[in-house]
Amino acid sequence: MSNLTLNRSQYSIPASKADFTALIEKLAGAHSGLREKALLFFMRAEGPETASYVASMVGEGKYGTLHLLFELLGRPDLGAQGFFERAATQEELETLLSAFAPFNGDGQTHPNIEFLKTAREQRSQVRIGILAQADANTKTLPEYTKYRTNTLFELFNEGALRGSDGVARQALLDSFSYLPNHFLTAEGRFLLPQGSSAMPLRSSAGAEYLANQNAVAVGGIDKFPSLMSVRGERLQKDGNRIVPSVMIRDGVYVGKRNIFMFHAAVNLAAYIGDDNMIDSHASIASAAQIGSKNKIGSFVSMEGVLSPANAVPVYVGDENFIGSFARIGTGIVVGNKNFIAAGVNISKGTKLKDCRENAATKGEYVNVQDLNGSFNNLAIAPNNAVRDFNSVKLLPGEYILFENTEDFMRRFEGDERIKGK
């Protein structure tokens, strides 16, 4: 029988499933405690035609891919930074396929085998990564927090974490729920702002209630419980007001002193900053990023990124006013101190009649996409009559774009007589 080199040691190529089991048991003995240390591991193929993830979770079972990958990578020290990732050579991919040989043609499909075969056929570069559980040394490292969050978000967006593995899902939820001041860039990547410190991440061992994908949440049956049911004490301590019938799924980060009115809904991976007013029936979809001191009207809809997968999330900065029944489409980046009137439907291709006094495009139509990156102190409103505005001729049904000012915004502030002290 020929020999197979898995980095430091030589092992016989498994000729049968019994030989494969013996190989995995031998590796498990050499890698004592690896399954307890690793949160998850993955392989990613990057080629001219495909870029996809195939994740194998800690509870994978008989295939033992984690031990094979760990040996192939040279038994990296996961304690140093909490993760390890590098590109695999074509020879190493052949090694893995050889190890899985006893399972070929047995009438069953295994995602790792199919993945490796496809990568070989397309000669795609494959990156292998292992992410460790957070411990006292790594959970406060910015590099670990950023890597963990990016990895989990991308795996989830590719569908890899949508299965029934409760531990893996909880890792995703915890990463999003406990990150302070983490916003997505316009390209959909997470940034760790300079000077911010990572908050402790809950250990997945305390989340076994998610092992059953039909775990009962507050007010319904969902694989993700209500945020209020698992973090109610913290939300209340931070001064948030969340009236009955609001649904915020676990996996959302909520800051301080926010108000959520009747039937507002927030999907997982969203970020809500401080001092926001989110009115009744507002819908903040997956991964939407909301800053601070915003007024979000009733029935406002902000689209998410999970369908279609990998879309750029909605980003809303600070001190914006978004009127009732407004819709913000996927990929729209709204900066600070903007006014979006009731009923305005914004997508990247939405045309606006430019009425700004000093704009080079005054009197012309501009797309919302042209404003991304400089969407600050602007106002968008519908026009319902033939009229002139700032010397620009308007027609009914047009959206008009003009400068937002403090004088203009005062008419939308609450009545001083009824404001609380």
Features:
421 residues, alpha/beta, Alpha-Beta Plaits, UDP N-Acetylglucosamine Acyltransferase, domain 1, six-stranded parallel sheet, 9 helices, 33 strands, 22% helix
Helices and strands, with pairings:
Layout lengths: L2 E4 L2 E4 L4 H14 L3 H4 E9 L4 E7 L7 H8 L10 E6 L1 H10 L11 H12 L2 E8 L9 H16 L8 H12 L5 E2 L5 E2 L24 E2 L2 E2 L5 H11 L3 E2 L4 E2 L4 E2 L4 E2 L4 E2 L4 E2 L4 E2 L4 E2 L4 E2 L4 E2 L4 E2 L12 E2 L4 E2 L4 E2 L4 E2 L4 E2 L4 E2 L4 E4 L10 E3 L10 E5 L4 E3 L2 E3 L4 E5 L2 H5 L11
Helix pairs in contact: 4-5, 6-7
Task: Describe what this molecule looks like in 3D.
This protein has 421 residues and is α/β, with parallel strands linked by helices. The protein folds into 2 domains: 189 residues, Alpha-Beta Plaits, CATH 3.30.70; 187 residues, UDP N-Acetylglucosamine Acyltransferase, domain 1, CATH 2.160.10.10. It contains 9 helices and 33 strands. The strands form 8 sheets. Strands 11-14-17-20-23-26-30-33-28-29 form a 10-stranded mixed β-sheet, with no helix packed on it. A 6-stranded parallel β-sheet has the order 12-15-18-21-24-27, with no helix packed on it.
